[in-house]
Every structure is written in structure tokens, then in C-alpha cells.
Amino acid sequence: MKYGAEHIEHKFTLSFTESEIRGQWRDVFLAIHPEDGEEFPADLIEPSILVICNLEGEIVQVVLHDEGCDCEFQFTFSEKVKIESYVQQLRY
Fold this sequence. Notes:
It contains 1 helix and 5 strands; from the N terminus they run E-E-E-E-E-H. By secondary structure, the chain is mainly beta. Strands 1-2-3-4-5 form a 5-stranded antiparallel sheet, covered by helices on one side. It is globular and about 35 Å long. The protein starts with 11 loop residues before the first strand and ends with a helix. 14% of the residues are buried.
């Protein structure tokens, strides 16, 4: 959802794309795919997700990217929980 917009839950699946260590952080990059019959907002062109973790694997931040950059959209609480659960199950 866009900052300040009404909460809308989107149904999606995730896939791991890569992970890299950056100093004291591990960046986990995910692809996000709408479920069948679901559409993302029209002005969200190429969404992806950056999950920033500490080196112990604790999630510090979940950021929605569009075309590889931070964008004006954010996740709802339940969408964020889904993403965090997915990342915690990864073996990167």
C-alpha cells in the first residue's frame, strides 16, 4: 500500500534471489509474485523485497523496492509477518 493510503492486503508468493553480507548486516533479496487473480498497484512497476538482518539472522528491516530502489509503498503488518516467516525458513 502507498504511504497514507487505505490498508489493502495483497496475496503473493515469494522466492529467494540472493543474499550478501554488508559489514554487520546480511541483505536478503526476494522476488515477489502476485497470486493468481491478484494484481499489484499499477504504479508499482517491478517490485522486489530487501530484508536486512544482523549476522545472527534477526530481521531488522523489511523494505519494498520498485525497480531496485526504495519506493513510496509499504507492507501491511500481516504482509510483513508473511515475509519475515519466509526469510526465517531460508538457509542462505
